[in-house]
From TrEMBL:
InterPro entries: SAM-dependent_MTases_sf. The lineage of its organism: Bacteria, Pseudomonadati, Pseudomonadota, Alphaproteobacteria, Hyphomicrobiales. It comes from the Bacteria. Pfam families: Methyltransf_23. Gene3D superfamilies: Vaccinia Virus protein VP39. This is Class I SAM-dependent methyltransferase.
């Protein structure tokens, strides 16, 4: 499942999870589903809920926790319709090799579990790099397409519900899902359980917490409740720790330039058609636009000074008693 969102915010893709399905995790006592009651949000790491408001969007606030997380408050009372992916395939295909390269820096070969394979852009690059890839993907349509074109096995499931054997994989990868999981600690635990004790857990995540007012304005709306959690680098380390994992590496790319580009285009589009979820660039312009976007992020972005919004490649291992 490729992640993402209304382009005006993270500029990173729209999550493909079936949020209706995911939301039932929020209401595990069964009593809330379909009701109008709302529950207060809480930090998914610290489980506290008294932080000051750092973001506002519609009926939602983003509260700042001392650990670095901004968490949604209240939790969405109704399941949100499954978002549509507004991004061109280049959005996923252009960085695919760099993402595989990141995984390969820690695990050179073996079985790779991809969480949310979407249309298989990363999948294909990982297969070319020599990995045996298996995937979980809640969209049956996408799963079928990837199985047919790439000849791999795709389990139709959310990772939290996956029945794939524990400890089967040498490594795992996902992109931009942590802001969307109903419980990101539980999701990371579920992923970690599938990875062998000596394996690595790799992913990419946006770092959009603790932005200055300047960057907050440039980034635009946070797109809650599709995004429920926002992290900074320290919060990711703490999140991993809470899931029984230890961060072994993080490579950050400032994404201010690409975010500014999509925010400017996005705000023009929103002004023209407020309800439009159409891609920022369409037709012949789409591929060049997204190539530029990706070049600003991962090409030029790599050499820009840190600060403002970032995207981060992360690698982690299981914590051991001696860790
Ligand atoms: Zn916290």
């Amino acid at each position: 499942m490729n992640a993402a969102d209304k382009d005006a915010f993270i500029g990173d893709g729209i999550i493909q999870i079936d949020v209706r399905e995911a939301s039932r995790c929020l209401y595990d006592d069964g009593s809330m589903e379909g009701s109008n009651l709302q529950r207060s949000g809480a930090c998914p790491i610290c489980r506290t809920n008294a932080g000051p408001v750092a973001l506002r969007e519609g009926e939602y606030s983003g509260r700042q926790c001392v650990c670095g997380v901004i968490y949604i408050d209240p939790l969405p009372a109704h399941p949100v319709d499954a978002p549509i992916d507004h991004h061109h395939r280049v959005y996923y295909s252009a960085p695919a090799r760099a993402r595989v390269g990141w995984v390969k820096a820690f695990t050179q070969r073996g079985r790779l579990l991809e969480i949310g394979c979407g249309d298989g852009e990363f999948t294909a690059a990982a297969i070319r790099a020599g990995f045996t890839v298996e995937a979980v993907e809640p969209s049956d349509e996408r799963a079928t397409r990837v199985e047919r074109t790439l000849g791999i096995t795709v389990e139709r499931a959310l990772i939290e519900d996956s029945r794939l054997p524990e400890g089967r994989y040498d490594t795992s990868f996902h992109v931009d899902l942590l802001s969307h999981f109903p419980d990101p600690v539980a999701a990371l635990r579920a992923i970690a359980a599938k990875v062998a004790p000596s394996g690595t857990i790799c992913f990419e995540v946006g770092l959009f917490s603790n932005l200055s007012p300047f960057w907050q304005r440039l980034v635009g709306r946070p797109n809650m409740p599709t995004h429920m959690w926002f992290f900074d680098a320290l919060a990711i380390e703490r999140l991993l720790d809470a899931a029984g994992l230890k961060m072994i590496a993080m490579r950050r790319y400032p994404v201010g330039l690409s975010t500014a580009l999509s925010t400017v285009l996005g705000s023009r589009r929103v002004a023209a058609a407020p309800d439009s979820h159409a891609p920022l660039a369409q037709g012949w312009a789409a591929a060049p636009y997204y190539r530029l976007h990706m070049f600003l992020r991962y090409g030029i972005g790599r050499w820009l000074p840190m600060g403002g919004p970032q995207t981060a490649f992360v690698a982690a291992r299981h914590k051991t008693d001696s860790a």
